[in-house]
Amino acid sequence: MGNNKGSLKSTIAVSLTNYLDAGAIVAGASGLTLWQNYLGLSEVHLGWLNFISANCLGAAIGAIIGGFLADKYGRKFIFTYNLLVYMLGVLLVMFSVNFPMLLCGFLVTGISVGVGVPASWTYISESSEVNNRGRNICISQMSWGFGPMCILLLGMLFAPGGYLFGWVESLAHAVGGSALSEEATNAFSSRIVFFSLFIVAFIAWNLQRGLQESAEFEANKASNKKSGLLDNIAVLFQNSTAVKTVCFLATIYLTWNLVASVMGFFQPHIYETAGGVSNEQANWMNCIQWAIIVGVTFIVSKFIDKTAHKGIYIFGLVAAISAWLVIVTIGVNGMAGLWAFAILWGIQGGSSPQIFYALWGSELFPAKFRAGAQGLMFFIVRGLSALWGLVFTIIYGENGEGFTIAAWCMIALLTISLIVGVIGCPNTRGRSLADITRERYGEDF
């Protein structure tokens, strides 16, 4: 393992993947109504965009491919090529003029996100010091919060009525002509937001391809003669400890992510339809919520390596459940209910199961199939989240008439995540990855 400064530097470089992951989801979400008006999309169309995006199926497909590729060819292999695919997807969205093109752009971007996530979390853990592993994962999570916050700020500046919308109008008419419709002009603001992701992806690609390969991956590769892609998959499914761990982590992450994926993609839209606020107000509320997530994550990063994980885990899910209880008690028809919900959901985001899924997912598997196991779980979680996104649009209705029923579904899912996480919380704090692997899998790994 490198020194503290070195691990922090590589963590920041790799964490840009999380920025791009959440940024892609929220860039689509913040401009969802604009694309809907421009292309004449229905709620079902919006459900399909969510279904194949970085929020769900696209990421699921990418994760199961990228996880096992990272175990076969190395973490650096992913960092060298993956963000080129991400930039292609973003360009497709930027130049979309119809629904199939927009759908394709969301899919390509989503696949790239999925490919990068398992390798990123694995690399961060493998390059971290024993007493900084949780902190570094939290830094990665902070990047996951910075992405939406920055994208929402840009969205508000460029959105119709925003401070920079006059510039957007001028640019849109310069490109599309003076006869460009109002809907097409408004959607141009979303194209500019996606362009900002292209720039960040280009910077991240240059930083990540210069990283050194994980020392743990190199050591495992040197000591294992049988390290083919199919071999690693077979070993994962044949090992009872690994299978049980997959079931545990997939359960706590899935039940939380079914809720979070809906919020990540549909939240501004929900605020506008169920809450009755404007697009600008919805984005401001969402932006402040992401700022809360970043702030709480920063606080958690200071003591996650020094205190019991179970307490932090419980705190986050109690806040999450409380947020949805606001929906079924106060409601979201008034600003008090909306703000209470936004603040509570922001607090839970800073200590959410995603932090522990990323941390435990890289701790509880051996290097031989560490990224592959995470990719498999990510595939399961995001794939089922994709299906849930379609179901949610049906429950929710065209104008949010089914939102209370949806809220009770969310509370049930979060309660399952809380119970399973408390029961299965592992004892990994302050221990090396090698020590954890020996205890769980023996000396052969």
Low-confidence stretches: none
Major β-sheet profile: none
Structural Rg:
21 Å
Care to count the β-strands? 0
> How much helicity do the residues have?
over 70%
Structural class, judged by helices and strands?
Answer: mainly alpha
Number of helices, counting only DSSP H or I runs of 4 residues or more = 19
Q: What's the average pLDDT? A: 86
- State the distance separating the first and last CA atoms: 19 Å
> Helices and strands, in N-to-C order?
HHHHHHHHHHHHHHHHHHH
Describe, in plain words, how this protein is organized in 3D.
There is one protein chain. 80% of the residues lie in helices and 0% in strands. The protein contains 19 helices and no strands. The two termini are 19 Å apart. The relative contact order is 0.15. With 445 residues, the protein is mainly alpha-helical.
List keywords for this structure.
single chain, 445 residues, mainly alpha, 19 helices, 0% strand
Task: Summarize, please.
This protein is mainly alpha-helical and 445 residues long.
Fold blueprint:
Elements (H helix, E strand, L loop, with lengths): L3 H27 L1 H8 L3 H9 L5 H17 L1 H20 L4 H28 L6 H26 L6 H12 L5 H27 L6 H9 L5 H10 L1 H34 L5 H25 L5 H21 L5 H15 L3 H11 L6 H27 L6 H22 L8 H9 L4
Helix pairs in contact: 1-6, 1-7, 1-9, 1-12, 2-9, 3-6, 3-17, 4-5, 4-6, 4-17, 5-6, 5-9, 6-16, 6-17, 7-9, 7-13, 7-16, 8-9, 12-13, 12-16, 12-17, 12-18, 13-15, 14-15, 14-18, 16-17
